[in-house]
Amino acid sequence: MPATSKTDLYRKLPSVDELLHRPELAALASSQGQAAVTDAARTVLARLRMEIRAARLEAATVDLALSGISAAVERQVGQSLSYSLRPVVNATGVILHTNLGRAPLAASALEHIRDASSGYSNLEFDVGTGDRGKRDVHVDRLFRKLLNERFAGEGACATPDISTIVVNNNAAAVLLALNTLAEGGEVIVSRGELVEVGGSFRIPDVMSKSNATLREVGTTNRTRVADYEQAINEKTRLLLRVHRSNFQITGFTEQPQAEELATLARKRNIPLMEDLGSGALFDLRSIGVSGEPGVLDSLQAGADVVSYSGDKLLGGPQAGILSGRGDLIAQARANSLFRALRVDKLTYAALEATLLAYVKHDHDAIPALRMMHLSHEEIGRRAEAVVVKLRSSLLAVAIIDGESVIGGGAAPSAVLATRLLAVTRKGLSADEVSARLRASEPTIIARVEDGRVLLDLRTVFPEQDEKVIAALRALDQEISDCRF
Ligand SMILES: *Cc1c(COP(=O)(O)O)cnc(C)c1O
């Protein structure tokens, strides 16, 4: 049989107009809109022309493709009208995974977002007086409860006045604080703390954007209080400590205690700021992590201002939070950058609900905290319940000991003992298994280690366990993707 020429193959293709007149596509256009269907028809036809040009289609396969062309247009419409931002199942065991959206929100946060933003709210309105109000009062009052009251319980010194403001993220909070407290002057930072956090947040860059000059002291592994002291001059405006969020320096090291730096700062009348990054509002020792200062620890040690993220250990929405001495926070609030970096009602609503859970000591209401508190036994039991529902000769699933990671710039070494599902599948490499899990609906994200796919149920919501089972069962089937 003579090969059909490409021109003949092109001729077989209908025009966009012809396609749109087919009854099934006309019906689709009336439900999904003419524009979307026209677009999809063009895309599908273009794809077919490309396949013909690349000589991947010949007469018989073109006919086959044409018989399914309406269905292809329909799929294309579905794809283009569906969300790109979608939920995924996080089976990596990394609780605060930046690429997966960090902290999942509490149910109360979602309800509060809906209530406060599906209509109007008193975001900047004082209901009592009928005057204009400030948007930060809604969360400042809760931060005061969480920070001042406990602070006051600590003893002798006069009750400090800790206030708090919120901006878009912690990078913005650091920028705002440096610009407010040190514009045109110098900020002293240890060489061991010149960090880069994921997404290219670099202390030296933020420093220059804030119009402050970085004054490095000490060495990568050792910095003493005396190094800070010697660097202080008439231009010094701020001492800055930065949490080493994603690396550790071990061996021959020295770093001054926050208390020692606070004493120096007080003596020289220069404020001390600590960029905590992850900033916990609960005691990390409750999950067996020691040596990590929380927000209160840092303030109690004498930091005048601390900055931290809303969506790391706090377990709330993306936000950058500055808590500290009332006079310094008032200066930051008065800075025009604060207006440029302000957050929306959605953030205030989510943050207010999350903080209220802390005020009520209802830590289990906050998903990230609940996941941190899950015991190794509990996760093991869920893993066993998954394994008994899998019966397959192709699939091997073992339960092994492993570690979950807190992530999000908590102590880089902060891990929690867990039980992992270790999956192998005959005929598929670990990377292929992992790709199949990603392609399942919903997407499941696992870890690949030593030729095995590892799933950690710590970060999987219990109601998603069934989805994991379904996706693992589907690994049994041979792949069939013969769609064009
Ligand atoms: C995470 C982190 C930041 C950046 O916080 P974002 O909220 O992601 O902007 C800054 N500093 C430190 C020490 C961090 O750990």
Can you characterise this structure?
This protein has 484 residues and is α/β, with parallel strands linked by helices. It folds into three domains: 6-80, no CATH class; 88-96 and 372-475, Aspartate Aminotransferase, domain 1 (Alpha-Beta Complex), CATH 3.90.1150; 107-362, Type I PLP-dependent aspartate aminotransferase-like (Major domain) (Aspartate Aminotransferase, domain 2). Helices cover 42% and strands 17% of the residues. It is built from 20 helices and 16 strands. The strands form four sheets. A seven-stranded mixed β-sheet has the order 3-11-10-9-8-4-7, sandwiched between helices. The protein has a five-stranded mixed β-sheet with strand order 2-12-13-16-15. Strand 8, helix 12 (258-268) and strand 9 form a beta-alpha-beta unit. Helix 7 crosses helix 16 (345-359). The chain is globular. It starts with 5 loop residues before the first helix and ends in a 10-residue tail after the last helix. 37% of the residues are buried. Residues 480-484 have low confidence and may be disordered. The structure holds pyridoxal-5'-phosphate (PLP). Pyridoxal-5'-phosphate binds at residues 169-171, 195, 197, 201, 242-243, 245, 275, 277-278, 309, 320, 409.
